[in-house]
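If it is no trouble, might I ask you for a protein's amino acid sequence along with its backbone structure tokens?
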Amino acid sequence: MESPEIQSHHQASVGHLNKYALLCALLASMTSVLLGYDIGVMSGAVLFIRENLKITSIQVEILVGTLNVCSLIGSLASGKTSDYIGRRYTIVLAASTFLIGAIAMGLAPSFPYLVAGRVVAGIGVGYSLMISPVYTAEISPTMKRGLLTSLPEFFIVMGILIGYITNYALSGLPNNLNWRIMLGLAAVPAIAVGFGVIAMPESPRWLVTQGKLEEAKRVLIKVSNTTQEAESRLAEITKAANSEPTNSKNWHGQGVWKELLWKPSKPVKRMLIAAIGINFFMQASGNDAVIYYCPEVFKSAGIHSKKQLFGVNVIMGMAKTSFVLVSAVYLDKFGRRPLLLLGTIGMALSLVVLGLGSKFLEHSDNKPLWTIVVCIVAVCAFVSFFSIGLGPITWVYSSEIFPLRLRAQGTALAISVNRLVSGVLSMTFLSISEKISFGGMFFVLAGIMVVGVVFFYLLLPETKGKTLEEMVELFEDKTDYTSQMEMRVRPQTT
């Protein structure tokens, strides 16, 4: 049973969305534009880089995958960094690092310099992917947390769409110039994010861990609808912090890795399985790789005009943007599990259709138009279902289930798995597809998504409507955990 204070806190949160909390969430989530823009713009820029620098397919995979693999460094470091210097300054660090990488890529005179720029940019992306959802989760009212914490995915999708439009707009420039401008323009959102941080307060939960209760209270009053709500949130956060070794100015995340990896308790173990699992399946779905190499896939399907290839990308980007908004709006109404299961099942079916269409085109000499259209629709359906489920919910779930002392570094660990799988898939997608064909690759990804559906159904409890401080109870006891899962699938009787 919830206390009267928590109930009144929930009731206050159900009302209108606090505008200041929304502004903070938007500014923090803007860091995710950096990854989205790179994914979108690189899918087209790589065609021109390949022609201009005369690089091989393996070098293309190294170029594309380097950013994802190196973002693993930023993701692993981000947890400790944000516990030490705070969430706000970690956002500044993420934007600054990516800015240096973007400038280096735009000015790169050769392939090795271009890869070096992507290494630096990748570290910045790793920082941004962890800190955006964690900061947003910590500042959001409970009943609006799903909406606000899904904003990083919205900005990733917006970045992808902007990247596609940039490809389309600059494709007519000379080959030695267009890709440099495409990659160099990534500096613009990085600068915007850096300035945006000026308007953001520090996370109230981090402030509590540093013993700065008055400052935390001032922030909570700004991001809550009433003073009473702010005070009940502060009491709840302080109570949780007092039960952990975090309510000291000398605490900067010490001992967390040992607790996470050496001897985790049963609830922490279940949290790790859930967070790492959802991040694994997010990237094992092949979403990043499909977006990066979509032009290559459609080139093999018979579309050779770069304008047409980039046009297909723009359509795909618009589909992603539309559906991520649908998910964000309904996430707090329907919950995480229903949308996650719907999205993953839809992805599996879309990949099967895409695999069948690709196989038909592989064995067809005349490449019939209807088959190409089916493949385009299947790709759009795939990315749309991703945007309904795995895309936004991975960030929401990863950032909300860990207790305060473990949140930054636990989320960092889960997102490091995300980045590692994304990097491996991006660097092997073309090579594996050459061995088993694009159609075969899509069938493999469909099989992975079926396994993902089973994993989510069995191991991810619903977190809708729970405060961050109540998450430990949700993962606490094996009996309670099992009964909660059964309640999700059994209609309740009165």
